[in-house]
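Q: Hi! New to this. If I give you a protein sequence and the SMILES for magnesium ion, can you show me the bound structure?
A: Yes, paste them in.
Q: Okay, here:
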Amino acid sequence: MVRVTGWSKITAVDRGERHHGRVVNAVLVEGLVKRYGQAPKDHLALDGLDLQIEEGTALGLLGPNGAGKTTTVRILTTLLRPDAGRVVVAGIDVLRDPAAVRRRIGLAGQFTALDYTLTARENLQMFGRLYRLGRRQADKRADLLLERFRLTEVASTPVKTFSGGMARRLDLASALVATPKVLFMDEPTTGLDPASRIDLWDLLADLVRGGTTLLLTTQYLDEADRLADRIAVVDRGRVIASGTPDELKCRLGGDRVDIRLTDVTQMDAAVAALREIASGEPMVDVANATVGVPAAGDASAAIAGVVRVLDRHHIAMLDIAVHRPTLDDVFLAVTKR
Ligand SMILES: Nc1ncnc2c1ncn2[C@@H]1O[C@H](COP(=O)(O)OP(=O)(O)OP(=O)(O)O)[C@@H](O)[C@H]1O
Ligand SMILES: [Mg+2]
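A: Thanks. Here is the predicted structure of the protein with magnesium ion bound:
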């Protein structure tokens, strides 16, 4: 994990950033370009990336390996300078005043930045000092975070004896020592067990309800679906699709009814019959003896129609199910992979 250094006092009142009753972008990114290495062997990691996150909302940055997610997070958290573009975080130009940005953000990077020789509690207290919390306040905050991340029992144990998931939880806790206005989390749940993932989701949802703006990167589509108000799909350094999870799913044309036939030799007859009622061309998967029918509108009404038409043609089925598009479908469709 990378950690922003040089924190100064966290002020309760952030001058000039509160605009009551008005929608404000906590993060604004325009035309971000980042090249690694020297020409002609340079690599274009970000190729004109644009983003916007409204204050008090969560954005999920979704993309395959190498898409540019970590590069984006590093630029937004002042750790890396872009080659071109404009970046405003919490109302402050990141390139012009990185120190002021650091005072207002929290970051949990993709790799941990813990001191493995210290105990869990000592690590959190150390971050408290970095944030210049008073000693008593730092201790209180450390104990609260240890509890919320289920680490109280191992609070006095050196981190070097921790499992990967325990270290990850402590690392995430350390990003929350100072209750930041804008929180960046680069693949926060990678390496966590299912229970810890759900704990973290609840905790992040609480923070966003409390007014924190969250940018999280993830490869887990269910995570983006559950946590993010909006999703930006990144591929090769550009945003190739964005919207609310529901908007993205709608683009795929809504629900589908999947029918598994008892006898695959009836497939042609089934497709012909289903064409009578389908709102689009049925999709055939011979290997699984399955045919999918696009359902315009109410999928449960479509099921009744499917059952009736197959019955009329004496075609038997093993199974029938409504398939609602998932973010996996969205991702595959927009990246065409
Ligand atoms: N320090 C570096 N030097 C050279 N190339 C780099 C460096 N860091 C990243 N890259 C390249 O830039 C591109 C974007 O990398 P980045 O780490 O931002 O992707 P990512 O979306 O975070 O991927 P992942 O899901 O694997 O974490 C990749 O092609 C990567 O190889
Ligand atoms: Mg990454």
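A: The longest strand covers residues 25-36. Let me know if you'd like me to explain how to read the tokens.
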